[in-house]
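Bug #77: duplicate submission created two jobs. Keeping one. Sequence:
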Amino acid sequence: METLERPGAGSAGQSATGSDSTRPLLPVRAFLAAKDIPPAKAGAYGLVALHSKPTAASRSKLLMVCKAFIAFFPRNETASVPVEDQMFTVWPVDDPTNRQVKNDDCDFVLDHYDLVASQLAMADARKQKASFEGAGPYLVGWSPSRARGIPDALVLVVDMSSDNNQADIDNKFRFWKTKIVENPSLWRNGWSVEGVRAAIHNFADQYGQAILDAIKLIGDKKS
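Kept job's structure:
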């Protein structure tokens, strides 16, 4: 299996010294059980948070979310960079070792979604004054990983409640990957308030003003 390696010195976002604040970040995905979240030593991470397992009304939308999750990120097992140089996006499942999980079976990972992990993540984000009043789902992210649950720390929330087609859902994952995850200056030492705010507005210029309502850096008084 081909592995994904960090770009060499001189690549975008990496200084000659290779310091922590400038070293490129490799976005990866992982199916993990609640007990393994957050991933040990991860530089930063986010989680696909659902209010419930799929119902007849929500299943088609959640399948689109799963497809975007798989399409936008390589598996963490393929990465040959240190864990601290990875930003994990996690889909919680109750049995990560199952063959159907390994095969990226969206129907299976939806039916075996680990609600405990989601509820704990949303509860911790609420301590940081995040709100989850919409139907969701949400992308919820912390940087560094240890910032989760700390009242004064920042948490990034991407709300997909209003997204009902694949293109709109893809746009949220595209923002998460290209504007946040792939820009190390926004996360290496905790979220950069000014940097994240600028990224949201720049993305809204391209993909529409609804982005401004859907993406919030909670704890940023101007968000």
